[in-house]
């Protein structure tokens, strides 16, 4: 290469000086170009590296949030609103009491397992269903959703069972319904199984 360049070099001193200056400029330009190419390669690698770590960080954060969320039961705490619902002996096993439906939008149900208080609100669009005693089911008049006595949905567009309020026994022996504690039901699982704490043992 050097010999080839030497062959091309002019013999005239002035022309030789100019030729050398041109060759040196070409060499500098070639080196600058190489540096630029190497620099852009590394910046591409940095970008990909940051992208990878960013994705990993987001994935880890989502996993952590999901773990924290699963540590808490699906219970919503609403403003305090309690009412007395009479004595346990006022209720008959296997019956749905509509006594508190109008004022508190709540059914009190007594079964062999105990008492529970259903929030009388259809989980489709929020209408108030009716209890049909002869058919032993709750029926929503708006779009026809049906629920078993447990509140589990089985027909119509309702996406999940009806929710329940907390029910307990007060100091005076009367049933207390606490509407500030709502047991929110998820789809496809019997309410008695997903929230057994919503049942007050008789
Ligand atoms: S609101 Fe009850 S079925 Fe639509």
Strand and helix layout:
Layout: H1 2-8, H2 13-70, E1 75-77, E2 82-84, E3 95-97, H3 101-104, E4 106-111, E5 114-119, E6 130-132, E7 137-139, E8 146-147, E9 153-155, E10 164-169, E11 175-183, H4 191-194, E12 200-201
Antiparallel strand pairs: 1-11, 2-11, 3-4, 4-5, 5-10, 5-12, 6-7, 7-8, 8-9, 10-11
The structure holds FE2/S2 (inorganic) cluster.
FE2/S2 (inorganic) cluster (FES) is lined by residues 122, 124-127, 140, 142-145, 156-158.
Question: What features would you describe in this structure?
Answer:
With 202 residues, the protein is of the alpha+beta class. The chain folds into 2 domains: 2-70; 75-201, 3-layer Sandwich (Rieske Iron-sulfur Protein), CATH 2.102.10. Helix content is 36%, strand content 24%. The protein contains 4 helices and 12 strands; from the N terminus they run H-H-E-E-E-H-E-E-E-E-E-E-E-E-H-E. The chain has helices at residues 2-8, 13-70, 101-104, 191-194; strands at 75-77, 82-84, 95-97, 106-111, 114-119, 130-132, 137-139, 146-147, 153-155, 164-169, 175-183, 200-201. Strands 1, 2, 3, 4, 5, 10, 11 and 12 form an 8-stranded antiparallel beta sheet that branches. The protein has a 4-stranded antiparallel beta sheet with strand order 6-7-8-9, with no helix packed on it. Strand 7 and strand 8 form a beta hairpin. The termini are far apart. 21% of the residues are buried. The structure holds FE2/S2 (inorganic) cluster. Residues 122, 124-127, 140, 142-145, 156-158 line the site of FE2/S2 (inorganic) cluster.
């Amino acid at each position: 290469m050097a010999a080839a360049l030497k062959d091309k070099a002019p013999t005239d001193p002035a022309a030789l000086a100019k030729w050398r200056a041109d060759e040196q400029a070409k060499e500098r330009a070639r080196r600058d170009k190489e540096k630029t190419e190497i620099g852009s390669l590394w910046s591409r690698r940095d970008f990909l590296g940051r992208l990878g770590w960013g994705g990993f960080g987001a994935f880890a954060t989502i996993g952590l949030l999901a773990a924290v969320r699963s540590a808490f039961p699906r219970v919503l705490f609403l403003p305090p609103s309690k009412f007395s619902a009479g004595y346990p002996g006022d209720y008959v096993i296997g019956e749905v009491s509509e006594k508190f439906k109008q004022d508190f939008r709540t059914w009190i149900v007594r079964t062999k397992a105990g008492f529970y208080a259903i929030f009388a609100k259809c989980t489709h669009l929020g209408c108030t269903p009716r209890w049909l005693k002869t058919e032993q089911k709750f029926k929503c008049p708006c779009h026809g959703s049906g629920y078993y006595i447990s509140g589990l949905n089985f027909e119509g567009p309702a996406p999940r069972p009806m929710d329940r309020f907390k029910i307990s026994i007060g100091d005076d022996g009367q049933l207390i319904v606490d509407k500030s504690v709502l047991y929110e039901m998820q789809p496809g699982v019997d309410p008695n199984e997903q929230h057994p704490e919503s049942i007050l043992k008789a």
